[in-house]
Amino acid sequence: MMGLRSLSFRAKTILGIALIEALLLALLISQVLYYLHDSTETQLQQRAASVSSLVAGAAKEAVLSHDLARLLNLVDETMRNQDIVYVSILDEEGKELARRGHSARAAGEAFSSDFHVEQTDDQVFDVQVPIRVAGIDYGRVELGLDVRRVQEIARDARDLSLAIAALEMFLVALFSYILGAYLTRQLRVLEAGARAVADGQLGYQVAVHGEDELGHTAAAFNLMSRHLEEDRGRRDCIMRSALDAIIMADHTGTILEFNPAAERMTGLPGVRMVGQPRLLELVPMRYREAFSEELARVAKGQVPQLAGQRLETYLRRADGHELPVELALASSQVAGRLLITGYLRDLTEERRTQAQLQVFSRAVEQSPASVVITDLAGTIEYVNHKFVEVTGYRVEEAIGRNPRILKSGLTPLARYREMWGAISSGKEWRGELVNRKCGGELYWEQVSISPLRGPDGHTTHYLAVKEDVTEHKRSVERLMLAASVFTHAREGIMITDAEGRIIEVNAAFSHITGYPRAEVLGQNPRMLKSGRHGAEFYHAMWHDLHSKGHWYGEVWNKDREGRTFAELLTISAVRDDEGQILHYVALFSDITLQKEQQHQLEHIAHFDALTGLPNRVLLSDRLHQAMVQARRRGQVLAVAYLDLDGFKQVNDAHGHELGDQLLVQVARRMREALREGDTIARLGGDEFVAVLIDLHHGQESVPIVERLLSAAALPAHFPEGIVQVSASIGVTFYPQAPEEVGAEQLLRQADQAMYQAKLAGHNRYHLFDAEQDRHVRGHQESLERIGQALRDEEFVLHYQPKVNMRSGEVVGVEALIRWQHPEKGTLAPSEFLPVVEGLPLGVAIGEWVIDRALGEMEQWQAQGLALPVSVNVAARQLQQGDFMERLHALLASHPRVEPHQLELEVLETSALEDLGMVASVIRACDNLGVRFALDDFGTGYSSLTYLKRLQAAQLKIDQSFVRDMLDDPEDLAILDGVLGLATAFRREAVAEGVETVEHGRILLQLGCELAQGFGIARPMPAQQLPEWVAQWRPDPVWREQRALSRDDLPLLYAGVEHRAWIRAIEQLLGGAHATPPPLDHRQCRFGHWLQTNGRRRYANHPAIQEIERLHLEVHELAHVLLGLHRSGRGSEARTRLHGLFKLRDALLDQLKRLTV
Amino acid sequence: MSFHLTRRAPLWLLACVMCGWSALLGAEVLTVGVVPQHNPTRLAEEWGPLLQRVAAVSGIQLRFRTAPDIPMFEERLAAGEYDLAYMNPYHYRLFSENPGYRALLHARNQALRGILVVRRDSPIESLAALEGAEIAFPSPAAFAATLLVRAEFAAQGHHITPRYVASHDSVYHAVIKGLYPAGGGVVRTLLSMAPEVRDQLRVIWTSQPYTPHPIATHPRLSEAQRSRLRDAFVALADDPLGRSLLDSLHIDGWQAAEDSDWADVRALQLDPEEGAKR
Hints:
The complex is a heterodimer. By secondary structure, chain A is α+β, with helices and mostly antiparallel strands. Chain A has an eight-stranded mixed barrel with strand order 28-29-31-32-33-34-35-36. Chain A has a five-stranded antiparallel sheet with strand order 2-1-5-4-3. In chain A, helix 22 links the parallel strand 26 and strand 27. Chain B is α/β, with parallel strands linked by helices. Chain B is 43% helix and 19% strand. Chain B has helices at residues 2-25, 40-58, 70-78, 89-95, 143-156, 168-176, 187-191, 195-198, 223-235, 240-249, 263-267; strands spanning 28-34, 60-65, 84-86, 102-107, 114-119, 134-137, 161-164, 182-186, 201-206, 214-217, 254-256. In chain B, the strands form two sheets. Chain B has a six-stranded mixed sheet, with helices on one face. Chain B has a five-stranded mixed sheet with strand order 7-6-8-5-9. Chain A binds chain B through residues 41, 45, 60-62, 64-67, 70, 92, 109-113, 116-119, 133-136, 138, 1100, 1105, 1109, 1112, and chain B through 1-3, 5-6, 9, 11-13, 15-16, 36, 39-41, 43-45, 48-49, 52, 63-68, 72, 111, 187, 191, 195, 209.
């Protein structure tokens, strides 16, 4: 130990470094050698894995297809790698498919693991990898890698690292020797310098240079000597430059120091003060006594320590004025004498600042915004009065706590993070917080938080200025809600300012008009004008807007592409509190489709497709108008019912096509035979009706009728030859005193007369005899007997439910009258109502029905069943002047029934007879709460104008359309159109005549949910109804059926087309002389749909292929059946029809899958 | 690591030997040749697991095999190399005569239809527009894709030059790449193509339906073996695993077949050498 301690510093250094270095190098080399060994092995394995996987991948397809040539090729390629010793590819049984090179291992010896590597001798590394597809092995690849080269590289690396270690040992020894020598020489110089200072040579400088630790020590030493020299000079400088007055005195009051600041503050020159006992002169008179006593106590040591005391007092100036000053006193014993030093700071400026600060403070305290000041940790140091008022926390409750006492948990956490992010990086943060008052109530605050910085620019506090925006927030939330409605509305919405400039539109607006939002902002809505409406239209619109504040109607506009479209538009003026118009808000929906459908519908509904003549519907309308006109003008009109003689024979002999051509020619000639204003309509088949107007008496019609006869009897020329028919005509007149007759009755009369003409031998006319008719009618149920039945209570009501097919809700029932005749059994209304039509007894029966229905509703209510009941009323009943009063009275006598539970159904056709009157009754009933329905809707002249005027809540779609829609595409189209109308006019649509589940399913697909019909329930007596309602459940198919999108509607039509096609085949096989439908599967309408729309839209649907197959089969089978039919084996064909039906049903089932 | 494994080598050897024994003792091993309609990997992916399932049910080991191309496949069929083979109806017509393969099964609810495809954007709408053109086909004897399509060209009196591109996949890709204006295929292989491939093609003609590809057995198979295999194939449709395997083949299931089911194919006069005629 002693020996080691006596070693020189230099020797210790060298020895220590060398020892450590040797130890570390030994560690490092051993580690390097270990890793070298390890990585050689890893490298080999990786190489083996990559080569073998590559070969296995490349060999996969060739092995699967036993392509030996390709395998040999692959093996050769692989062998080009110089480190590959051998490659072998085997099949799953271990049979060798291809090999190159030689292996030490036994051929075909398989390993059990997927990927195998092993070293069989010193030179070769053997690898095996399976050829696997979808988890199944189809063979394997074996190959050997040459190991020697990799091992050589490892040996070289080891030798090199040993050489580097030896060199490093040598260099380290050399460096430590040089370092030791340098250190000891510099230390000796420093030692000499320190001895010099100790000897008193102040300012002695040592000559040691350099940037190392020794150099720094020497520089510090030199600096120290210079500082000792400068010390005195500095003290003088401080005294001279201090801004505070510094006055030093001893306990006798003799002044020892008096700096220039003291001279300025007191107005006394230092030279006159220093050395003089004038301290007391500087103290105001009133404090002098106390000051002297205090001084004495200090001198006696009674006041132990003065340092650190500060007080605010006054300094007396030479001129006698007093200055406010802050005085700091310090006492110290210097060389055994007590010295007192006073530092005085002029407070004049500060006092002024303080006064100002008080004003600021009051301003903050009384600020209308809440103010909170916290320290950097967020602890509240100050809150103002407004804060207390808003939050309900008292000042003392808030101080010292964290603002999170206000947290409601409703402000998103991200916002707090954002806030802290901003203010902790020194930025201001503004935002909104949802907080909770002391009492728990929520409120919204608009908060601005900013860091308060000290004079040095560092943040010392946070300042929060907060405004309670709860009220504002609530109104904004209401606005946001409105905005959300705005954005998501399906109606287009456009907002303009008071000058009509567009300031906002929603997405639906752009969708409908094609204008993107950016393109219309600032524009005037007149850019959308289509030009279809005149100036007066817009004038009236503006007039309504200014006077009533809103306008509602239909407008034709044009979109961006210039296409015109119809919209249902509501414009409202938005006014401020003073009534000034701020904005106009326009809300519209596109009803173009409904308009077009309506147009089509009207055409289908009013004209006969073959002859172009008006059809039965339009005839009915014209006849009604003509009757009203004849009554008003006191004129006569004639109705001529015309049936062609021998037409059937022509059809049978020459075929339908020629028959149709004949009808067209005859129709044209008859029209030419009439006067302007007369109407001729085709009822169907070979039946026509002419309405002749402007007659003064019946006889005037005779020449016209004769012209019709000769027009019909003219020969018609065809390439096939000349064809001639004649006509039989029945004529009746209107009016017929004393009885009032309706249009239907007139047609019946004319029909009867025509029949007479036929009986009398063809080609003639017969005039209807009203007298005789009345006589004949006597044989029907007599008025007398019907009156008796009413008195004897032989009438009863049956009820047929109306339901929502999807929800299963029973939405109401329709009351239907029955006569329980003692002899004839139950009679339908058609047996007795026509007799009383238009008579007071008819009105009485109508009232009985309403009264009875209300009575039975009361009974149901007593059993807990509240169902709306609809009652059929005749137009004649509505025309009674006191109808509304009677209805009122009936409702009043059944007070437990709410008026809105009663519905009145009026036939669409009869409502149109006196539109104005019916419309006003509907309005009056609406005020009373009683709703109206238009019955048999679709059969009348349902124009948009009429529908608009009749405010009926419900449209009951005539059952003929519903019944036939399954296999008549035209009826389906009409039904779809009528439903479109109902939607456009926001009327409820109820489908009548739902007879099967399939009817209901199609209706639901079309979006019609309400229905009535035998498929749901037959009319039943009142007492059976409650039980029925309790047990009825809709068919499960209905529950799941959703309305189709419009894009899917062609699918529905395709199904119906297909049924229609099958029905046509069925009729052909049944012997009907119809034109066969297209037999080629590409030509029929379903096939056409399938090839275009169907394949395009459902290309990826799995069912479409099945549909194509079934469709092909349907056609093939139809071919076969028609072949049998033609070859006289019709009965065999008919027995095989069920096969066709089965295919049809399978195909329709697949079609249904497409919509799922 | 490798040195540890080496020590276990004797154990593996033992395991391998035992497997070999069990094969010798009982399990029958049959090869199943699948017509190379697609590339071999895809075929192996579709058929391998399915055959394994059938093997598990029938107790008969089945080895999946295919050939580099259709001519090679035909050669191997002619040599009777496969115990079972999934071949096209035309092959069946040939090789049921010699070496006498016998139909065992065919796909359920499926008919084979030849189709003619063009690129979706191609203006060609009819066979007539292809007069004199080079048309891509998988191989000369591919039944629906080549023979039926060529027969239709011949029937309509249009001359074309066939080009054989080895597989159905290649036909579709060649048409998409515009190498040929049109190509012959079948509905099922078109449907089994990826949707993005299928969407680039348009079918302009579809043949009548014919009985689809049979799985046929070599006459060396016993009736007992045939019946076990038939039952196992048919049963696939009834278990969930089997179903998913069938789905990847785009087949609804297998149904037992008889030789007479291919009478429709035999009724056709088809000859790949001369082109095609009805």
